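Support request from a user on the community tier.

User writes: "When I paste my structure tokens into the form, the page sometimes reloads and wipes my input. The last time it worked, I copied everything first. Here is what I submitted, just in case something in the input itself triggers the reload:"
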């Protein structure tokens, strides 16, 4: 397994206003209560976000730093979360490489000129993130000013090389990922060139976000669960590892997250990360034992549980925290196993955040 540097500094401005649970948990240090943040915590379930979306498209918000900062802060204003994540999307890096991206209402992201041939791969460009993704870097700077006043850290993120490849080749979302897996299996040279370019783009982008002010970085490999362990080991792991190695130069903790990865967790750990994100398809304590002692774990409530009556939701939160506590290690970050769903009741989000802190403090006492 790769070496893990646990000596990440906590900025002085963050130490004065509240315990730094999130950064401490990333370093597997004891905390007063389990930190909690939620993937897609800024989004359509919040009326504040829906109001903004009536005036702007998602890409307009992402590409206007002041708007992206405002959306980043919406859940921080609403809930007692332990970290913010910059409002962005995993796909704009593909625009910087020469692909045409559109978010179509009711359909999701659409790539108008998908990558299908070796010539398409060769045409992709690798541009500096300061040039291609300046808007997110500027938004990070704005958000840090807001968050430093509250003693809260900021997470930057990128899609992983395979997930970006999946969107680039499929042209959008896909159920079976036939095109991207066919390219991977049928043309090793083109696949290698594609993944080398993507790993450079991802690594540079993550590094630039940390340099702009992000104190933690997360790699999202949303579609990696579509792969067999052998395919992941051979065709994906080296490129995820390369992106993480580039980002590691920033000296901040890195979270490595994928969905449907119960059969891939040791390999994902091998690819790198100080914290491994776990979805709900495996018990958290079982996942942590698979991953080993030298890594923190993030997860892993089913997002649909937020639609349940409070008594049932509370029981499921307790189960996650009990399993983490039973392992007997520091380094658990509470999160969902994937992003908040659009119709999620806001009151359940509020009660979840408060209860995670309250119940985990009881466990520690």
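"...and here is what came back when it finally went through:"
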């Amino acid at each position: 397994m790769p070496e893990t540097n646990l000596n990440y500094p906590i900025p002085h401005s963050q130490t004065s206003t509240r315990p730094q649970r999130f950064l401490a948990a990333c370093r597997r240090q004891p905390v007063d209560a389990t930190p909690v943040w939620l993937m897609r915590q800024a989004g359509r379930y919040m009326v504040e976000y829906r109001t903004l979306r009536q005036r702007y498209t998602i890409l307009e918000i992402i590409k206007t730093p002041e708007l992206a900062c405002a959306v980043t802060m919406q859940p921080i204003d609403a809930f007692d979360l332990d970290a913010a994540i910059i409002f962005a999307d995993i796909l704009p890096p593909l625009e910087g490489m020469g692909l045409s991206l559109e978010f179509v209402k009711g359909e999701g992201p659409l790539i108008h000129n998908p990558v299908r041939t070796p010539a398409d791969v060769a045409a992709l460009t690798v541009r500096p993130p300061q040039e291609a993704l300046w808007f997110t870097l500027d938004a990070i700077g704005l958000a840090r000013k807001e968050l430093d006043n509250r003693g809260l850290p900021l997470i930057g993120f990128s899609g992983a090389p395979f997930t970006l490849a999946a969107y680039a080749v499929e042209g959008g979302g896909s159920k079976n990922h036939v095109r991207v897996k066919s390219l991977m299996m049928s043309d090793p040279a083109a696949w290698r060139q594609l993944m080398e370019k993507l790993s450079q783009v991802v690594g540079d982008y993550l590094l630039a976000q940390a340099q702009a002010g992000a104190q933690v970085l997360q790699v999202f490999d949303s579609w990696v669960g579509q792969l067999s362990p052998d395919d992941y080991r051979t065709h994906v792991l080296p490129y995820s590892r390369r992106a993480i190695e580039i980002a590691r130069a920033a000296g901040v903790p890195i979270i490595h997250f994928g969905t449907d990865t119960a059969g891939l967790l040791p390999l994902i750990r091998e690819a790198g990360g100080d914290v491994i994100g776990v979805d709900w398809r495996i018990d958290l304590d079982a996942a942590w034992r698979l991953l080993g002692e030298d890594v923190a774990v993030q997860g892993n409530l089913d997002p649909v549980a937020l639609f349940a009556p409070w008594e049932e939701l509370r029981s499921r939160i307790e189960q996650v925290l009990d399993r983490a506590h039973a392992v007997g290690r520091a380094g658990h970050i509470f999160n969902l196993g994937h992003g908040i769903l659009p119709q999620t009741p806001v009151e359940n989000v509020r009660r979840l955040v408060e209860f995670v802190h309250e119940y985990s403090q009881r466990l520690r006492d």
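Agent notes: The reload is a front-end session timeout and is unrelated to the input. The CA atoms of residues 148 and 312 lie 36 Å apart. Confidence is low (pLDDT under 50) at residues 1-17. Escalated to web team.
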